[in-house]
Each structure stands twice: as C-alpha cells, then as structure tokens.
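Here is an idea for our session: we take a single protein and study its fold together. Start from the sequence, derive the backbone structure tokens from it, and show both lines together. Once you have written the record down, we can walk along the chain together:
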Amino acid sequence: MSAEHFSASSTRHALLQELRIHFALVEVATAAVGRLWLAGSFVSGKLDPEDVDVTYLIPSDAYAQATEDPDTVDDLDNLGTKDWCVRHGMRVDAYVLRLPETTDFHALGLTGAMAPDDHKVFEGLGVWDEIWQRCRSGANGIPDGARRGYVEVLL
C-alpha cells in the first residue's frame, strides 16, 4: 500500500499519535525499550484500523529494575490493559515482555550457557510470536489456517 492510499485514512494519524504517547509512557516506566512488535490491522492495508496492537520488548536489565518497584509494576499493568488505555485516550492493545539476558546465541547448545530463567523468557516470546502470526479464520474471507505477520521495529 502506498502512503497516498493511507492519507485518506480517518484513524491512522490519530492512532500513530496515541502509540507515540503510549510508547513514551512505557519508556519512562522501563527506562528502555529494546524493540517493538506491531501487529494487527494497523500494519495491514486496512484504510481505517480501529487500534494498534503492540508488544514492547524490554531489555532484561531494564525490565528487572522496573519490576522491582511496585508502582512501576502497576503502571505497566495499566499500560497493558486495553480498557485503561481507551479510558486515557489511547486505542492501544499492548503487552510488555522481557527480552532474554542471554545474548551469545552461538553457545546456547552448551550446558550452562543460557542465563538462569531465560528458557521461560524464550517460551513467552515464542507464545506471542505465534499469537501475532495467527489470523481470525473465516473473517473477511480469510481461509482457515491462514497466517499473518507482524512488523519488528528495532530501537
């Protein structure tokens, strides 16, 4: 789709502004966002998407520090609750995940090479990767078993 096509959208500009505000709030809470996964109709050819689906991937050390503070945990919980976002003028459906501490992927096959608890982190990332790959079969002519994707934004 071309940018010219999207210039006729009645929702995209406002959604992008809402995402920018939401991103800033997550960044303030975590002190760092490593990358984003954008999914759903916002990254499709749909002219007027209803919301933005986003997963924030937070570096392990920043995530650990942010989740030491109960107030920050509450803030992140709110930012990941769609109803809270809508009440605060943001049509954002967000999830906040920790990135693995392990960065040397060449050694992952070696015993003890993975940081403790990273297997859980990798499993969680895999679940969300699979969710964002799914389509709502049968809706709008989408065949059963169809797959979609998401856009990863490196920051």
User: Anything to note?
Assistant: The chain has one domain: 3-154.
